[in-house]
Amino acid sequence: MFRKLVSLKPYPSRWAYTNIQSFGDRLKTPDVLIIGAGIVGLSIAKSLLEQNSGLQVKIFEKESSLGLHASGRNSGVLHAGFYYSPDSLKARFCKEGNLALRSLCAENDIEVHNLGKIVVSKNEGEDQLLEQLFNRGISNGVKLELLEKEQLFDLEPLAKTHSRFIWSPTTAVADPQAVIKVLANRVESLGGEIIFDRSFNIKEDYSGKDSRHVVNASGSQADRIAKSFGFGNQFSMIPFMGLYRYVPKSKLPLKRLVYPVPNPQNPFLGVHFTISASGSVKIGPTAIPLLNREQYSLLENWNLSDIKESVRGLTSMLKGNAHDLPGLFKAEFPKFFESQLIKESSQLVPNVSGVTGWKKMRPGIRAQLIDINTGQLVSDFLVEGDKCSTHVLNAVSPGWTAALPFGKYIADRVISHL
Ligand SMILES: Cc1cc2nc3c(=O)[nH]c(=O)nc-3n(C[C@H](O)[C@H](O)[C@H](O)COP(=O)(O)OP(=O)(O)OC[C@H]3O[C@@H](n4cnc5c(N)ncnc54)[C@H](O)[C@@H]3O)c2cc1C
Hints:
Layout: H1 2-6, H2 23-27, E1 32-35, H3 39-51, E2 57-60, E3 77-78, H4 89-107, E4 117-120, H5 124-139, E5 145-148, H6 152-155, E6 164-168, E7 172-173, H7 176-189, E8 193-195, H8 202-205, E9 213-216, H9 222-228, E10 235-242, E11 245-248, E12 257-260, E13 272-275, E14 280-284, E15 288-289, H10 304-316, H11 325-332, H12 338-345, E16 359-360, E17 364-371, E18 376-377, E19 382-385, E20 389-393, H13 399-417
Parallel strand pairs: 1-2, 1-9, 2-8, 4-12, 9-20
Antiparallel strand pairs: 3-7, 4-6, 5-6, 10-15, 10-17, 11-14, 11-16, 13-14, 17-18, 19-20
The structure holds flavin-adenine dinucleotide.
Flavin-adenine dinucleotide (FAD) binds next to helix 3, strand 17 and helix 13.
């Protein structure tokens, strides 16, 4: 990195010996402008500032407060890292991110609930997938056990499985809102500036000299902003709504998180049980395709260009046989109703059928990228850009868990271009 900086012109070479000095200072503009103060944008800013205290880093956040989108509306699960293909960025950063997030929580008095996770199978077909999942986790270096049905009762008496199950002791839960808040405080204490109610717009905010580098970490808007810079042209975004229902833990005293074997045709984990940091038991999230990217309720945030993009993305999903779109609609839409969500989750925890008094939680929306040319939902994180801009596309789950090392990876990339 430093070798590259020394060779940079026209900056005086002395700049390379200490921290990178602020060229932006001289222009009264930031060195790095980050779009979006979600967990990804904040993690990038933190890493940039920790590595180079002289940098001027600004974050534009279009909302008036933190965590109004995915980073504040997720399940709060610190994933262990066993779902992802070993050569993926997700596998590379999830396991490390789990450890990094634990340290951040410990340093800031945020409780991490070390509950562990159980993945159960519903039938013989899923037994094979379970084993494949276990093997993948082992390839990723994740601590896991594949145990026999008889051992399930000791770990989670309320769950059931067809034959074997996976035990993941390093899966945990923390409060996503608390995490994003301490990250923002850290960025500000390092000299970063978060400007709320400030929506980035390429025409007004980018003339090529407004900042040395722009980082697009805008979540559900990332493909759109990338396209305005000439990147990500073959992609579109399909929003998938994640609905949850919850009851106090006293009504369903689960000890562990309980998950199904994921459907290999979808990049989602399936409706599961989590125990929130505040002690509620949640079922969800669904993966209901939506037309609008910020449509958290039926009447909210209708947007014509969102609709066009979603329809374009959904119709492209009909290409090839990577996904089963009619099957997805058939499986997901009924889950708007509590009865269907309970019916599906009762295959993992039969006692759920007798529990009443479920309440709705505020839903989240996954900003899922699709390759329009192939009709395939993109499974890994994707980063595109050049020396002037970097675009974080498809920061889907486990983006929250992986954010700190993933943020460093992006920050290193940005620094190499300054
Ligand atoms: C239902 C659900 C459950 C999930 N569960 C988990 C989980 O348990 N564990 C896990 O690891 N991951 C989970 N995830 C994934 C995780 O939440 C995301 O990967 C992560 O939050 C992505 O962070 P982000 O910063 O990219 O996006 P966001 O949090 O969406 O942040 C992007 C920010 O950019 C801002 N923005 C957008 N456009 C502009 C603009 N033009 N100008 C300025 N600002 C702009 C937005 O307002 C927003 O604040 C889940 C996601 C969902 C939806």
